[in-house]
Amino acid sequence: MKRLAIALVIAFLLAFSPDVFASGSARIAEVKVEYNTNLKVSFAVDGAFSKGIEEAIASGMPTSFTFRVKLYHNRGFFWPDKHMGTWQFRHTVKYDLLKEEYEVTLEERNHVEKTKDVKRMRKLMATGDQIIISSLPALVPGRTYELLIKAELDTVDLPLFLDDVFFFVKLWDFKTSWKVYRFSY
User: What residues does each domain of the chain span?
Assistant: First the structure.
């Protein structure tokens, strides 16, 4: 009876843990922070493209990665961290079957790039390069900050009648765990 109770508690905790839904293979990597007059972040998502995701893109289905970035001032053990801002942006790809060309939209730069190279498309979709997350953040020299970054593949919204036919599309969704990057200004 005691083992059953312990198993139920563990199952309950796992069921409501946000990291349970995080992809085991996709993760945020290569985080770099630069601060001049702007706070800029660069990163990459390793393992973002499964065979199913690539097939969905190649079939012409628009696919988006949503990136979330949070900035905290780490105030030590006795004080809670101070939330300084949250930013969100998307990278969306559409494949034109007739032109055999990918159209990638980078929301944070308000930029659209067309390419026929699948490797270039993957790089554009899964990397952020010197993204300005705040124009003039109030960073104080000598203090410690935490940058949290998360990526997820957006659920594809299909028309109502196709949602039942293509139920397996939801299996391609992924979420990375929050990547915590500490830095001092």
Answer: 26-184
